[in-house]
Every structure is written in structure tokens, then in C-alpha cells.
Design a protein that fits this description.
The chain is built from 10 helices and 2 strands. The chain is mainly α.
Length: 212
């Protein structure tokens, strides 16, 4: 999300609740904002799904990906890491012919590659999610109050991207890594005053206890 101070920071929904400015720009965004974005994701397949979707989103709008999400899930075996890791050339051909998804060979091959790398992480470390959550900021900054307070990348996302690339992952630059951190609750970028923000804070606290 790029900073644009001309964009309202908070907007009221039909229910009167204040939400982050982007959440009311399309109907699909409301549920995503309220129920998913920023909520901690602790399971390996969930982390992998968001990583794949963020990679496919590169150069496109997130709304495009949301509208194709169920087709992506059907095409990629529900984003089960073990299933995607054994996809072969025939699966690439199948996916390139699937009009329901983004038919980009590099992104498709990256998703399959990343499943293999994710499986290696799980075999070596026990958890893909733990790897990602290890890059949660130790001292989070204050609550963002406007669009201008939000970053496209952070030192933590740059470090995460470096580590993922070292492990052989593809399509994992610092901006993609940070968008993933926002989506999975590793950081909480709901604006101050957004009704979801404090719910996410409580869920993050529970996630932290689970990781200890």
C-alpha cells in the first residue's frame, strides 16, 4: 500500500464502524479486512497460501487475486504444501490453461518451487510458520494513524526476503514479504481507530504465547 495523504485514513461502513480506507473500495474487501487481513496465521499451509497469492498479485490489484482465490485453491490443491511440492510439468501445462487463475509461467513455477522449499523448511525446522514469525518486529512502532505512516517494506521484511531467497524461494522481494507480514498478522497495520485493530492485537498476544 503506497502512502497517499489525499486518501481518507478511516472510513465509516454501513454499520457505522470505522475501517481502514481501502476496505470499502469494493464489496470483497469488507470481509477480507474484517475477518482476515492482519489476523494471525499460524498454520504452515495458510502461510504458504498467502505467500503464493502475494506472489501472483505482483503487478496486479489485490482485488483481482481475491476474486480468483477459490479458483486458485482448486488449481493448487488447496495450497497444501505436500501436494503442490510434487507438481510436475503436466501440472504447469494444466495451470497455464486454467482461465480462473493468473496464467503466468514464472509465477506458477515459483509457487511450485516454493512448495518444495517450504517442505524442506518444515523437514529441517518443524514449521514454516515459525520461520516467518521469527521476523516479527521485536519492538513494534506506534499504531499507524494515516496512510502516510504505512511502509512498503521494513528492515524485518528485507531480512525475511533475504532469508527466503537464501533458502531458494522465488518471488519474495521485501515488498512482497511485507505484504505477507501484514496479511498474516506478523505486523498489525490496521490504522488507529479501525475497529479491527484491537481485536488483532489480542489475537497477536495469543499467537505470541503459542510461539513461546
Amino acid at each position: 500500500m503506497s502512502a497517499d495523504v489525499s486518501t481518507p485514513s478511516l472510513v465509516p461502513g454501513d454499520d457505522g464502524r470505522l475501517r481502514c480506507w481501502w476496505s470499502l473500495s469494493a464489496p470483497e474487501y469488507v470481509a477480507y479486512h474484517d475477518e482476515e487481513w492482519g489476523r494471525p496465521v499460524m498454520d504452515d499451509d495458510g502461510i504458504f497460501e498467502r505467500l503464493c497469492l502475494e506472489g501472483f498479485q505482483s503487478g496486479l490489484s489485490w482485488l483481482t487475486i481475491l476474486r480468483k482465490r477459490e479458483a486458485f485453491r482448486a488449481a493448487f490443491a488447496g495450497f497444501r504444501i505436500e501436494a503442490v511440492a510434487v507438481f510436475g510439468p503436466s501440472d504447469v501445462t494444466r495451470l497455464l490453461g486454467d482461465a480462473g487463475i493468473v496464467r503466468n509461467r514464472q509465477k506458477i513455477e515459483a509457487a511450485i518451487n516454493n512448495a518444495g522449499r517450504a517442505l524442506e523448511v518444515i523437514e529441517a525446522r518443524g514449521s514454516l510458520a515459525a520461520l516467518f514469525w521469527a521476523f516479527q518486529p521485536e519492538k513494534p512502532g506506534g499504531s499507524p494513524r494515516s496512510v502516510a505512516d504505512l511502509a512498503a517494506a521494513t528492515p524485518e521484511s528485507r531480512a525475511l526476503a533475504r532469508e527466503l531467497r537464501r533458502l531458494g524461494f522465488r518471488f519474495v522481494g521485501p515488498t512482497t514479504a511485507y505484504a505477507h507480514m501484514q496479511a498474516t498478522g506478523i505486523v498489525n497495520d490496521h490504522l488507529e481507530g479501525c475497529w479491527v485493530r484491537h481485536a488483532v492485537e489480542r489475537e497477536q498476544a495469543r499467537a505470541a504465547r503459542a510461539l513461546d
